[in-house]
Amino acid sequence: MALGKYEPEKVENKWQDIWNRERAFEVEVDRTRPKYYVLEMFPYPSGKIHMGHVRNYSIGDVVARYKRMRGFNVMHPMGWDAFGLPAENAAIKNNTHPAAWTYQNIAEMRAQLKRMGYSYDWRRELATCRPEYYRWEQLFFLRFFEKGLVYRKKAPVNWCPSCHTVLANEQVEDGLCWRCDSTVEQRELAQWFLRITDYADELLAFLDKMPGWPERVLTMQRNWIGRSVGAHIDFPIEGSKESITVFTTRPDTLYGATFMSLAPEHPLIETLTAGRPEAAAVREFATRIAGMDRIKRAADDLEKEGVFTGAYCVNPLTGARMPIYAANFVLMGYGTGAVMAVPAHDQRDFEFATKYKLPVKVVITPEGETLKVEDLTAAFTDPGLLTDSGPFTGTPSEEAKAAIIEHLVDKGLGKKAVNYRLRDWNISRQRFWGAPIPIVYCETCGAVPVKPEDLPVTLPEDAQLPADGRSPLPGLESFTKVACPVCGKQARRETDTMDTFVESSWYFLRYACRDKTDGPLDAEALAYWLPVDQYIGGIEHAILHLLYSRFFVKALRDEGWHKLDEPFHNLLTQGMVLKDGTKMSKSKGNVVDPASMIARFGADAVRLFILFASPPEKDLDWSDAGIEGAYRFLNRLWRLVEEFVSGLGPVCAPVAPCAEPGSLALSAKAKELRRKEHDTVRRVSRDIETSFQFNTVIAAVMELVNDLYLTKDSLRETEDGRFVLSSALSSALCVLSPVTPHICEELWGALGQAGRLVDQPWPAHSEAALSTDEALVVVQVNGKVRGRMTAPTGASTETLQALALAAPNVGSHVEGKTVVKVIVIPDKLVNIVVR
RNA sequence: GCCCGGGUGGCGGAAUUGGUAGACGCCAGGGACUUAAAAUCCCUUGCUCCUCGUGGGUGUGCCGGUUCGAGUCCGGCCCCGGGCACCA
User: Fold this and answer.
1) With a 7 Å cutoff on the CB, does A378 touch strand B?
2) Superfamily (CATH H level) for A228-419
3) Residue A295 has what pLDDT?
4) What fold is seen in the domain A34-134+502-600?
């Protein structure tokens, strides 16, 4: 049989058709088999797939195909994160509807993914913009509303003037919109929030039980949640019944609090200054600071600045009068927006006190030292012993924290408190192309939830999008005019839609429930398939998507939808695909289009290169020479099989991977190739299993192929040689098949092997086949390599020592010196130490 | 500033528990085949010195340490990437 020329497109189309026809990757719940859920982050359907997708999905596909061969019931789904702003912009530009643009892109990208030969169960495909999907999200919203997990409040929110919408805190990076890099403004708006902070403790605690996630991501989530333990302490305001509550992590320094700093936005500022001569200056200051943009206000070189309000409060323990300041460095969004200032032990307070000549009082000293106020050049922030602190003087500061809180509790002046950096998740978006929030505003009944039986609230399909980018929904009477679900009077529908991160917070659950049409989730299917065993995606979602999803899963669990605590057991964050050392971008003109590479070299070569060039976690620099090398290797493999089947065909029946030779006696050369074959299987299995190091997996197979080239001409002469050649070739195809499935499947068939390669079990190497009669032993003198020798495997220390001393080139380094000692590592190394 | 990663040939990258540094690929050079070229197959390839060998020296960011032996372990630096950052 002649194979002819390697034509990737032909081979790849053929096998994709066959897998499709034979439903090779469609799976169902099967409790008799262990399951494995491999998931890659689903793409936004922007038009075409890019190299980042190719990398992400190729990694996932190797895992899926490998686990399949290992006997797992593998679920490997794909879908579309289909709501989002680009669809609106494109619709405006092309005078079409976002849905039309989105569905067209999905069709194009689906075809591209199919062209890559990924082993998806396409029946599970979903698009989040379909009412069949988002209707369930609206149902979740109603349940959360009922429970109080979603609420509406007027709050200062992040506004992107270019996207015409608000953003969650997680979506603001350095004061800029994560999507368009515009400077984010602060606006006061009524918005819907999800109480993610209710889960802050659990979200944090579970991070310690997630060894399958990269440490980096865990750290980023810990930082983002930002739990700190301290106290709320009340400071009575002089001449008022009210008091100011502060949050502090340093209750031990309370005796040193000498003034009070409030955020310029603090609600008490107005009342404190009312009728005072300072009022005008304070208002002017507060307005100026509040009006500053985020970046400027957060800059590290921003000078501390403040104004005296004219009012005083009282230190609850010392009774000292503390002037109340409005200060630019105090944030309304953290703690209570009020800070007890302890200038001796907080650097910011120290700088502020120095600038405004406020009193400084030392209350903590390093052990065995005294600290004088006049000697301080910076705040002393380390732990130490309390001084000048009434009954607590002499107590170690760490102990004093609890003791002082206890004291405050007794007197009703404060309590222990935990504070988080994490804020509730603002999910309202003033956009059109998103899931409508199922709420109706009635003049008499207020914000009323839509009745569950009236779901879904669907997006109008005939909406014309205004050219200025604003949502058309508020102006669409057909959408907004609705009867109040409670009183029936005319009311107005909510026109905000949900953040698209809500859709991506549960899509991985829905994949497992594709048959469920009368509800969002099928608890039994979830119990079998979830959690996701291996999740793969970009590090850019370390906080956003990965934190929201964790929260959403917990919230759904507590609503009784399933019993899962965490959605993603193992997480792999793959690196970026670069070109010439930088991110690919249209403006730099360095974009490599996967489609053109597939057309030139085929999907297998693209998969091979992208997996070979770098380990998955690292960034990968696209190289045109590299992909040619990958293509060259596939041709080399092809020709090897071609030569094998045309030259040895009649005399050599196909042999299974890692076949046992039985009574067949193997020559030394045949044994050597067999050893290489088994070692390759061993290395490939280990590298996939322990670390997904596909680059070394491929290198190992390349080595085996190189060896096959070097030995084939002599081994083909004998029966044992042909046997070993056939086995080795089968093994090579078998273990390479998750990486380049099409060519391997074709060559497997060409060898005359029965069945589909895709259904083969993963080969198992035999330890016996790895053993050798002779070992290469390195001879060192004083740690430097001076020679190499072969010695019988298992040779004794004495034998190796003698052989080493007699080895060529060793004598001259030992001659005239005293051998002090000899270190022998059996079968490996002899180190002769001389003086 | 704090917290994570990471520094290995011309390049991408390998190196189980400390045991031959540079696997595999790219690039480059040489040979075979060919009328020729392409393709292919084979070989060489860290740097350096010489007497060209089974040779010597040197080499994994820098300095030091532990060890018979360090890319790997320890201490101290330098550089690069990422995250967080007036968070009270």
Assistant:
1) no
2) Valyl/Leucyl/Isoleucyl-tRNA synthetase, editing domain (3.90.740.10)
3) 63
4) Rossmann fold (3.40.50)
Pairwise CA distance, residues A834 & A351, whole Å: 65
Token digits for A6? 């390697």
Given this model, what pLDDT does residue A293 score?
66
User: HEC states along A142-193?
Assistant: HHHHHHCCEEEEEEEEEEECCCCEEECHHHEECCEECCCCCECEEEEEEEEE
Answer whether any strand B atom is within 7 A of the Cβ of A228: yes
> pLDDT tens digits, residue range A313-353?
999 999 999 999 999 999 888 899 999 999 999 989 999 99
Question: For the structural domain made of A774-834, what CATH number should be given?
Answer: 3.10.20.590
Helix (H) or strand (E) holding A707: helix A694-715
- pLDDT bin (cut points 50, 70, 90) of residue A234 is very high
Gap between the Cα atoms of A295 and A292, Å rounded: 8
The count of residues in chain A is 835
Average pLDDT, chain A: 92
Quote the ipTM score: 0.95
Rounded CA separation A581/A724 (Å)? 44
Residue A524 Cβ under 7 A from any strand B atom:
no
- Collapsing DSSP states into helix, strand and coil, what is residue A70? coil
pLDDT exceeds cutoff 60 at A649: no
Residue carrying the six token digits 């020679």? A787
Distance, CA of A614 to C1' of B14, in Å: 11
Mapped onto helix, strand or coil, the DSSP state of residue A689 is helix
**pLDDT band of A816, cuts 50, 70, 90:** confident
The per-residue pLDDT for A251 is 94
Q: Which residue is nearest to nucleotide B6 (CA to C1')?
A: A618
The strand B neighbours among A residues 266-305, by Cβ under 7 Å, are 297-298, 300, 302-304
Report which residue is nearest nucleotide B87 when distances run from CA to C1': A334
First to last CA, chain A: 67
**Mean per-residue pLDDT for A557-572?**
95
Alpha carbon distance A386, A392 (integer Å):
7
Cite the DSSP H helix spans in A226-346: 268-273, 279-291, 294-298
Tens digit of each residue's pLDDT (9 = 90 or more) over A685-719: 999 998 899 999 999 999 999 999 999 989 988 99
DSSP state of A32: T
Q: Which fold has domain A624-770?
A: Isoleucyl-tRNA Synthetase; Domain 1 (1.10.730)
Q: How far apart are CA A631 and CA A633, in angstroms?
A: 5
Q: Which tokens hold the place of A173?
A: 């990076």
pLDDT digits (tens, 9 = 90+) for A116-159: 999 999 999 999 999 999 999 999 999 999 999 999 998 878 88
| H helix count then E strand count, chain A | 27, 32
Residue nearest to nucleotide B5 (CA to C1'): A216
Confidence of residue A2 (pLDDT cuts 50, 70, 90): low
Percent residues over pLDDT 70 in chain A? 98
Is A485 near strand B, with its CB below 7 A from some atom of it? no
Amino acid at A753: Q
- Checking each nucleotide's C1' against the CA of A703, the nearest proves to be B24
Locate the domains of chain A by residue range.
34-134+502-600, 135-195+424-501, 228-419, 624-770, 774-834
Tell which phi-psi region holds residue A429, choosing left (phi > 0), alpha (psi between -120 and 50) or beta: beta
